[in-house]
Design brief:
612 residues; 19% strand; globular; 20 strands; 7-stranded mixed sheet; 6-stranded mixed sheet; alpha/beta
Length: 612
């Protein structure tokens, strides 16, 4: 097979995220392209064995990978509830393999998962073409560790490693690399290395000794061995240039790289919020890279500390999700009025209010564009993969520093927690960042209203002799920089700030069309839907335009869209980007395909809609 999709599912305490991440990371190290989908329950520690507590992790690996896959080729179900959720949501193909822990299918387990009969496979209507592989994971794990001094609870926590070893065997992955990866994962808990390694190796040997592949399907179809030469990147390049990375970590590293390239200290003022907190965690650990991170007492103080750092001359950032973005809105308005560089990272999640905090949506777009009082323009960007969260975090910093403006970067839960194969760039390869520093010739007669030919004001910091000034949240005089209540001046300043954002379109890339540019059909998306739309466009043999730059739009947006007879804007909301495009491009006819289910798109559903 060119690509394979594996889904691990079980209770929140069964280690499904760890198991899936390790499988994905080894795949990346072996040169496969990867895309992952961690699927956390929205409840905090729902009762064990219940449907509400099922945690999943899906990974697709192979070549030409754009998404975590619509449906799995192999499912590992650690209990009856995980089996039921997989069947109800149709997480697998009709010819898939389901490995299930038979020790977790007792009458009590079935009752917790709300089965009505004692035969889960018949009750769930699992097709006969699906191959069920019963494995007594619990019993086998206990047997593997019977000589250890671990208590029963600790032993049971190792079941996921037995399942992982079995999957490693099924796809012929190298155990020496798998063991090294496990040792790295548990390096801070060395006592756990030996038992988990033993269980994982026993799982691998269990598959080999029983020749499980003979019970399910021809082995050549199951492994990636046949396509290996197409999937594996040159090993020498791989070890030095590639890694598996999650979107939140990539975002954090993009901010660090931008600060180093700009010659600035990086300051982060943030408040913990799902699913953005990992960026705060990563940056708090990077004092070695001159990062200053403050966990503030709330969202408002987080952004205000960042604005103070921007006034003082640092690269200033704040991270949040939708509820926090709304709380930060007044302070972002201050940064717009004071014309200070500020990067706001919004990792979108299901809403409104506390909504679905562990699920993904694209529902903050209009808030990012317009959710502030007054005429308050800001730059809005959107990352489109876990890996390019690095690129667009870097780009957000570059635009903010060079144009003296807040920049809102939209990612989402799918990108933040998912992982992808990432080529590690060298700092020298990254674009230059030239902060809008005040020219020395303005010393002695500087004021905060002075601008360059683009309409971008100059940046002076406290402590610079001869550049003393006040910066304010009240409207300023267009010439002197002092407070002004003049109606004509206010209108002039509103238009000045608007023009400053619009002119950024001159320095961003033009919109590129992917796929069959000569098709009559154009799929349009923004942000994290790119992989799914790319796969759909390939299947439909049509064109795709994916937007990363939203405010301002690329200069050639109208030119590109006007070439197509049918335009379908696909997004995980009720049509926010479609509405925005209609307002910016009157006369362009647009269709919408929208889903708001807390999950990424299924490629199949996009194709079915577009084929009508």
């Amino acid at each position: 097979m060119k690509n394979i999709v594996v889904r691990f599912c079980g209770d929140s305490g069964d280690g499904m995220q760890l198991t899936g991440n390790m499988f994905a990371q080894l795949g990346a190290e072996m040169g496969h392209e990867i895309s992952t989908l961690p699927d956390f329950p929205a409840e905090i520690r729902a009762p064990q064995g219940t449907i509400g507590g099922v945690s999943g992790f899906q990974v697709q690996l192979g070549s030409g990978v754009y998404t975590p896959g619509d449906k799995a080729d192999v499912i590992v179900a650690m209990n009856a509830a995980a089996l039921k959720v997989s069947a109800i949501n149709k997480h697998y193909h009709d010819h898939a393999i389901i490995i299930v822990d038979t020790d977790a299918l007792s009458a009590k387990d079935l009752e917790k998962a709300q089965y009505k009969t004692d035969n889960p496979f018949t009750e769930l209507g699992i097709p006969e073409t699906v191959k069920i592989v019963p494995v007594a994971l619990t019993t086998l794990t206990k047997e593997a560790l019977k000589e250890s001094e671990m208590d029963n609870k600790a032993v049971l926590k190792c079941r996921n490693m037995f399942a992982l070893g079995l999957i490693y065997w099924l796809f012929d992955e190298p155990m020496d690399k798998a063991i090294r990866l496990l040792e790295d994962k548990f390096k801070k808990k060395p006592a756990l290395v030996a038992p988990n390694t033993k269980v994982m190796v026993d799982g691998y040997n269990y598959g080999q000794n029983l020749a499980i592949s003979q019970l399910i399907i021809d082995n050549e179809q199951l492994t990636s061995r046949e396509a290996g030469s197409q999937l594996i990147i040159n090993n020498e390049q791989l070890t030095s240039r590639f890694t598996s990375i999650a979107g939140n970590k990539a975002t954090a590293w993009g901010l660090i790289a931008a600060a180093q390239k700009a010659g600035k200290h990086l300051f982060l003022g943030s408040y913990p919020i799902t699913p953005a907190t990992d960026i705060l965690h990563e940056l708090a650990a990077r004092k070695d890279q001159n990062v200053m991170a403050i966990q503030a007492e709330d969202e408002i103080s987080g952004v205000c500390t960042a604005i103070g750092a921007a006034f003082a001359g640092d690269l200033a950032c704040t991270t949040t999700s939708g509820p926090g973005l709304s709380l930060k809105s007044e302070a972002i308005g201050l940064a717009v009025m004071a014309e200070l560089p500020l990067v706001v990272v919004d990792v979108q999640r299901g809403g409104p209010s506390t909504g679905l905090p562990t699920k993904t949506e694209q529902t903050d777009l209009l808030q990012a564009l317009y959710g502030r009082n007054g005429e308050c323009p800001a730059v809005v960007l959107a990352a489109s993969s876990s890996a390019n969260c690095f690129d667009f975090a870097y780009e957000a910093c570059k635009i903010a520093l060079e144009n003296m403006t807040p920049v809102i970067l939209l990612t989402d839960t799918y990108l933040a927690n998912g992982t992808a194969l990432w080529r590690i760039p060298k700092l020298a390869e990254l674009p230059d960042i030239k902060p809008q520093s005040v020219p020395e010739e303005l010393k002695g007669h500087y004021n905060p209203a002075l601008r360059d030919e683009r309409g971008v004001r100059y940046w002076a910091f406290p402590g610079m002799e001869g550049f003393e000034h006040r910066n304010i949240g009240l409207e300023r005089d267009a010439v002197r920089g002092t407070i002004s209540t003049s109606p004509e001046n206010h209108e002039q300043m509103v238009l000045t700030r608007k023009h400053k954002i619009e002119q950024i379109a001159n320095s961003i890339p033009e919109l590129q069309v992917q796929g069959n540019a000569h098709s009559d059909l154009l799929l349009v998306g923004w942000g994290s839907t790119e992989g799914h739309l790319h796969a759909a466009a390939d299947e439909l043999n049509c064109a795709l335009a994916q937007f990363n730059y939203i405010s301002p739009l690329p200069k050639n947006t109208r030119e590109v869209l006007s070439q197509y007879k049918r335009i379908i804007v696909c997004e995980l909301n009720t049509g926010q980007f479609a509405a925005y495009l209609r307002s910016q491009l009157p006369g362009i006819e647009i269709e919408q395909f929208n889903e708001i289910q807390g999950q990424p798109f299924a490629v199949e559903r996009i194709v079915n809609y577009a084929s009508k």
